[in-house]
Specification:
The protein is of the alpha/beta class and 185 residues long. It folds into two domains: 131 residues, Rossmann fold, CATH 3.40.50; 38 residues, no CATH class. It is 30% helix and 14% strand. Strands 3-2-1-4-5-6 form a six-stranded parallel sheet. The longest helix has 15 residues.
Length: 185
């Protein structure tokens, strides 16, 4: 049975961090103009204040799965071994990573009840994960897979199809596209 590694943030769920960031700022930033992977970099000198408030928040308390994610993953689990692999360390407040790990685990346990919790992997360096298929929004996280699916996000949307093709990467925009690629091909 082939294996699939699936990222959590901006692949299974979307907007949890950005909603908290918007509440803090009091407005919605122009996400189309942000090129950096770390969206909090737009805070500049407000970053320390933001993280002093953010460190105790559960950004998964009101989170939801992306449309079609649950049903597609459930169907995929009939044919593939599914692993959820997610980073839990905030580079600005490493000492509070345990809070995020607990919140991520609880969300996954509750929302993806058909996936064995032993298949939840919490790792910053996803290159150590050996799976046939990797689905992530960050290119470095899908390296090493036979099938590399890059989920479109603000920080990767400007990559051209030629750039992706040269690296053997398939861009996906939603879970229906993933279903088409992995179940109907």
């Amino acid at each position: 049975m082939k294996s699939i590694m699936v990222d959590m943030d901006d692949v299974l769920t979307y907007g949890n961090f950005s909603k908290i960031l918007e509440d803090y700022l009091g407005y919605k930033p122009d996400y189309d103009s942000i090129k950096n992977y770390y969206i909090q970099d737009i805070l500049g000198d407000k970053k320390e204040d933001f993280f002093s408030k953010f460190k105790d928040m559960d950004m998964y308390e009101n989170a939801t799965l992306l449309p079609d994610c649950y049903n597609v993953l459930k169907e995929l689990s009939k044919y593939y071994k599914i692993y959820i692999c997610t980073d839990y360390i905030w580079r600005e407040i490493v000492e509070f990573a345990g809070n995020n790990l607990k919140n991520k685990y609880n969300f996954l346990y509750k929302k993806l009840d058909f996936i064995d919790p032993k298949n939840f992997i919490f790792a910053v360096n996803k290159s150590i994960i050996n799976c046939d298929i990797k689905i992530d929004d960050k290119i470095s996280n899908i390296e090493g897979a036979t099938t590399k699916l890059l989920f479109t996000a603000w920080h990767n949307k400007d990559l051209t199809e030629d750039e992706l093709n040269n690296q053997g990467i398939i861009r996906v925009n939603n879970w229906k596209e993933i279903e088409e690629i992995l179940l109907n091909s």
